[in-house]
Amino acid sequence: MRITDNQLATALGAWRRPGAALARALADAVGEAALDGRLRVGSRLPAERRAAAALGVSRGTVIAALDILRDEGWVDTRRGSASTLRLPLEATTRITPSSAMGEHGVIDLRRAVPAAPHAPYQRAVVRAAERSGPVLAESGETGPGLPELRSLIADRYTAERLATRPEQILITSGTRAALALLSAHLRPRVVAVEIPTYFDPLAGFRTTGTRLVGCQVNADGWDLDQLTAAFRTAAGGMAYLVPDFQNPTGALMPRTARRTVAELAERHHVTVVADETMRDLDLRDAPAPVQRISGSVLIGSAAKTIWAGLRVGWIRGSAALVGELAHHPLCEPLSAAPIQQLVAIELLRDLEPLLRDRRAVLRRQRDHLSGLLAGDDRWRFTVPPGGLALWLRLTTMRADLLTTRARAHGLELSPGPSFAADATHSHHLRLPYTPPISTLNRVATVLDLACGGRGA
Ligand SMILES: Cc1ncc(COP(=O)(O)O)c(C=O)c1O
């Protein structure tokens, strides 16, 4: 497909930048338009003369811009034919979303999410499309999920010494959908949550008027007295916990706390829903097997290990619970689209190499950011054993003021209170290490500036 000269001019809009050379500004504008989809990757650019006329520049400027784009991997030019737009290798192998790289002008780290593993994902989509025939010939409603995907996920649990049958797995469109379905089914009056915790479930519980009762967690662990009190209050209800590399603290629930949770749950008839979305992001040097909270309902997702855009998650519970959930009126609307389930099969079948790469990159980035911030008394933190972010305690200012100042320097962050059911943690800040080293350097510089310069 060829991009017409008009399409090129429209897609680029007002691309000139004061102070920047025309060819540089033009090349940057083409790259940005490719990244956010205004120019389609894989299509051919107009010929140089036509592009120059459409953009009101000389042919020499277009040639110079194409040279830059070629050097930086944005276009392929075969001898005698037009230039084809592509994404540079760097953009397709990294695990950082463009929005978190500052490529749209702002480094957006409000969400700690990785980009998709580009090439394996595209291959999985092609393979899924090739074998979609039988699924396309069906109604499109998969009930508890495609049998092959349920078996594959069950086998993963079994391989981790948690014997699981496919009837114990129900596929959803991610963890949040899993939690929404469980909440709709169990209808808890009170839910025990960690403080701080992942903010979306808090918002979800609030919309249904569910009462939240909290238990403090920090790098040192879970406050067992508060946990006991929270389970007593939530008797007959539910607990939503993130025991593995907790979001946002990165903490890993110790074995003793897991045992306590299981005992409390049994004593007070609380259904424990353990969110394992972060479980595979184990960044410890010598990882030991992580126990599970016995009797808990597990929810998992491919959001962090593969990509949030896959929208495939699952519930692992007793076959009886899964059977009941499969008959809930929200089961179908909260389930993953059949083709997405096929893509998930392709990716989950050979997940280990992807996980190995992802962990190596995250470990490097975590250590780099920790190194940049270490030894500064304007904040305190512990290097987390896993997950995607540092959890900083600011010693000189409130996090909302810092995030406002950071925004003025082009960095968006989520302040502590958004993670707290009781709106506390006003001096905490989540700092994802999902971006590459160069962006993390910029993040540290902005943090320094927003805190008033070193030593302020
Ligand atoms: C603890 C936790 N669970 C789940 C998710 C994502 O959920 P979903 O699978 O609905 O995208 C996140 C993403 O930030 C998370 O931190």
Automatic annotation (TrEMBL):
* CDD domains (alphabetical): AAT_like, WHTH_GntR
Q: Does the keyword DNA-binding apply?
A: yes
User: Which keywords, in A-to-Z order, does the entry hold?
Assistant: Aminotransferase, DNA-binding, Pyridoxal phosphate, Transcription, Transcription regulation, Transferase
GO terms (molecular function) for this protein are: transaminase activity
The record, for InterPro entries, names: Aminotransferase_I/II_large, HTH_trans_reg/aminotransferase, PyrdxlP-dep_Trfase, PyrdxlP-dep_Trfase_major, Tscrpt_reg_HTH_GntR, WH-like_DNA-bd_sf, WH_DNA-bd_sf
Q: Which residues cross the membrane?
A: none
Q: Specify the HTH gntR-type domain's residue ranges.
A: 20-88
Q: Which family does it belong to?
A: In the C-terminal section; belongs to the class-I pyridoxal-phosphate-dependent aminotransferase family.
The molecule here is called PLP-dependent aminotransferase family protein
Species, as recorded: Actinomadura nitritigenes
